[in-house]
Amino acid sequence: MRVGFASVPLPVDEPTPMGGYAARTGTAQGTLDPLRISALTWFDGRHRLALVLADLICVNTDLVAAARAATPRVDALWLAASHTHAGPETGCVPGGAATPPPWSHRIPAAVAAAVDAAVWAETDATGRWRTGTLREVGAVRSATPDRAEVPLDLVEVLDGAGRRAGVLVVLPVHPTVLPADNLLISADLVGAARAALAARLGPDTWVAVATGAAGDISTRHTRRGHDPAELRRLGAVVADHCLAQLDRPSVPAWQAGDRLSWRSRPARVAPKPPTGADAVEAATAAVAAARAGEDPAALRIAEGDLSGALLASTVDAPGHDIAVEVAAARIGSLALAALPGEPFLALAETVRRGRPGPTAVLGYANGYPGYLPTRAAYHHPRYEVLATAAAPGSGERLAELAADLLTELDGARP
Length: 414
What we know:
Elements lengths: L1 E8 L26 E8 L4 E7 L6 H9 L6 E6 L21 H19 L1 E13 L3 E2 L8 E11 L4 E8 L16 H14 L4 E6 L5 E2 L9 H19 L4 E4 L5 E10 L7 H16 L3 H19 L7 E10 L2 E5 L3 E2 L1 H8 L6 E4 L8 E2 L10 H5 L6 H19 L2
Parallel strand pairs: 3-4, 8-9, 14-16, 15-17
Antiparallel strand pairs: 1-2, 1-5, 2-3, 5-7, 5-11, 6-10, 7-8, 12-13, 13-14
């Protein structure tokens, strides 16, 4: 197996509309840390898969199609957003939209540059996989958590001499440390974790960070502020966890001579009925009650619910099924699944359930249907359910489809 990696900058001009917060006013007024598009390629001598990670709020299906058309040297390309809320607006609305210029042509060009450089850099490599529990960074944001912990997966790439060449981290936490009034471009938590881990591992090791199934997970209950210093603190926590994990026993992900296989399948997500004005009234009353009760945690949750209700009331619900794509790959023993939109963390566990080997689940990949809550979440609607365009059960159906694709790949292995 040959593996390549490359990363290119994604410059943002000023002023540029920023995505992620409906309450944001103003356009980008500078850069805190540069956005990047990173490509990781695997080539087994016959076929090549590219995983492209973009510091964007979302990727719509038109952008994915354009990126694939721009990269003829790969047989399959997955394009996944980090979901930073401090990047340019790329048409991130529930149910997806057309990607606006200049991003509709600037991003595919950057993807092509990153993929070409990664292919050029390919070298013989093996992979190791580890998983662990990351504490005090992410937690369920629409509830008062009894613990703040999430799973974190780590794929270590070793060169032909057995030296560490790079690390892929799958981090299922919303990168929303910087607030709505921030007007500085930033990759937010993903960028902070990437920079902190790269500094610890040194210049000879590349670092890629993908956002996992983070639909209901954020730093709301763990962050101590909304500023660059807090970004650096949380990024350091992630990096230190990864370093500790790298010292623990691992299992093989792929070895010399292993084969590469993948499958993708189109699906359709039924739309949720429109959110009524009564949801806004109820959320407004809940905010007032939380303020009166002087409960900071309850107030943050209530304010989030109000934001979701307001978003749903201002965005037209799709009057048709939403087209999505679910993808899965086997890289030797490593199983990867790519879910579109913002899947809840429990849906990643649906994909993993019963799997005997290393499995990692990415979110925000290959299209944006919006939030994908669990069916149970609709019984007590919070921000994500209020804002979603997807009908109940959509998330489970897509997660089960990903699991089925992996089972098919398992059965097709020689």
